[in-house]
Amino acid sequence: MAIWHMPGALEDCFVGHPTFSASSNAPAARGRRHALSTIAIAPWLLAPMAGQAASPPFPRTMEAGDTPLRLNGFGTRYRFTFKVYDLALYTPRKVSSVAELLALPGPKRLEFVARRELSGTELGRLFLKGMAENASADQMNRHTPATGRLIQVFSGKPRLMPGDGFSMVFEPGRGTTFYIEGKPQGGPVGNDEFFTMILRIWFGESPVDTLLRDALLDRARAPTDPTLATD
């Protein structure tokens, strides 16, 4: 069992519940709050999870420019037990390893759907953090204009609500275009290396979520599943 100090916001969810709410007895209420703030939690509750629905919550095919792409894999990003976003990877052909994906030529697409209310600024900051953890300082410096654009795009959307979609679409020779709710947020930025840095958020040496990485590579799904890309 692991001992976890409950963050204030989550603690308030419990304390505000009728079962746990304070009565007129303030000392007793404080005691309940203290008891809730440190809870013994099974380790599996602390581990990230990446669930896959019985059928994909994403289209089977999408496009990058004029190039058709097939759904390679999909999963859910969890933070503790809370769903943060669903993510799908679209590729020209099926890949099942990080090495295959990073070496795969041609366009690619990352499609997201928010599963809870998200701060656009914080989401952009976390993407940048994931890139920095899987790239060299020289790479980050080379792509300062493009990473700045990423932050600008998400900061321009103060709140993403559950069900809101956003995308990152890479086309060789053009760069990466960011979309929010299907609308392009300016023109393409960066080059092939920049999009590889984005991919490494989930597929680098320090991926944000290894279970989500495996789901995007479809490691748990039968290779004959008709919903996913084939060679």
Low-pLDDT windows of residues: 1-54, 222-227
How would you classify the quaternary structure? single chain
Number of strand elements: 11
The biggest sheet, with number of strands, parallel, antiparallel or mixed sense and barrel status, is: 7 strands, antiparallel
The portion of residues assigned to helices is: 25-40%
Structural class of the helices, strands and pairings? alpha+beta
Write down the CATH topology of the largest domain.
Answer: Chalcone isomerase
Q: What would you report as the Rg, rounded to the nearest angstrom?
A: 20 Å
CA distance, first residue to last residue: 45 Å
Question: What CATH architecture of the largest domain do you see?
Answer: 3-Layer(bba) Sandwich
Tally of separate helices: 9
Question: Which outline best applies?
Answer: globular
Instruction: Give the number of domains.
Output: 2
Quote the average pLDDT: 79
Beta-strand residue fraction? 25-35%
Strand-and-helix sequence, N→C?
EHHEHEEEHEEHHHEEEEHH
CATH class designation of the largest domain? Alpha Beta
Strand arrangement across the biggest beta sheet: 3-4-5-6-9-10-11
Care to describe what's here?
With 231 residues, the chain is of the alpha+beta class. It has two domains: 2-46, no CATH class; 61-216, Chalcone isomerase, CATH 3.50.70. It contains nine helices and eleven strands. Strands 3-4-5-6-9-10-11 form a seven-stranded antiparallel beta sheet. Strand 4 and strand 5 form a beta hairpin. Helix 5 crosses helix 8 (192-203). Residues 1-54 and 222-227 have low confidence and may be disordered.
